[in-house]
Design brief:
81 residues, mainly alpha, 2 helices, 0% strand
């Protein structure tokens, strides 16, 4: 019985030492190839609009994820003097 109690105590104390909100590092910027207009001339207008929409959605998602990561860098307002 003492061994079980000791095991539970060690297990619970180990779990308490894990930070609940770790600071996440920003990944390196995404490097994407640049398309020139000459390369897109054979693409239909509808396809070009889809490419443009995908690019916009990708940029928005990247910004959202960056903001989430940067929110882990903020200090606790209660800890500020």
């Amino acid at each position: 019985m003492k061994i079980i109690l000791l095991f539970v105590t060690i297990f619970l104390s180990a779990c308490c030492s894990i930070p609940s909100n770790p600071v996440l590092q920003l990944p390196p910027p995404l490097v994407t190839p640049v398309l020139k207009m000459a390369e897109l001339q054979c693409v239909s207008d509808e396809t070009f609009k889809k490419i443009d929409l995908l690019s916009s959605l990708k940029s928005e998602r990247i910004k959202t994820l960056e903001n989430i990561i940067l929110s882990t860098h903020k200090t606790d307002p209660q800890s500020e003097p």
